[in-house]
Amino acid sequence: MSNELVYATYILVWPALSLIVLSVICGAVIRDLRKARKSDDDLI
C-alpha cells in the first residue's frame, strides 16, 4: 500500500471511532435517564 492510502485511512478512522464512542456514551446516559424517571429518582 502507498503511504498516502495509509495516512488517509488513519485520518478517516479517528472520526468514525469518536462517533462510536460518543454514541455509546449518549446511549448509556439516555438509558440511565429513562431508568431514573421510571423509578422516580434523580439522575445525579
Please explain how this structure is put together.
The chain has 44 residues and is mainly alpha-helical. Helix content is 82%, strand content 0%. It has one helix at residues 3-38. The model has no long low-confidence stretch (mean pLDDT 92).
Summary keywords:
single chain; 44 residues; mainly alpha
Could you tell me the number of beta strands? 0
- The fraction of residues in strands falls at under 5%
Cα shape: rod-shaped
Average pLDDT figure = 92
Distance between the termini: 50 Å
Low-confidence stretches: none
Oligomer: single chain
Which structural class is indicated by helix and strand composition? mainly alpha
Largest sheet: none
- Binned, the helix content reads over 70%
Order of helices and strands: H
The number of helical elements comes to: 1
The Rg value, from CA coordinates, equals 18 Å
List the helices and strands and how they pair.
Blueprint: H1 3-38
Brief summary of the model shown:
By secondary structure, the chain is mainly α.
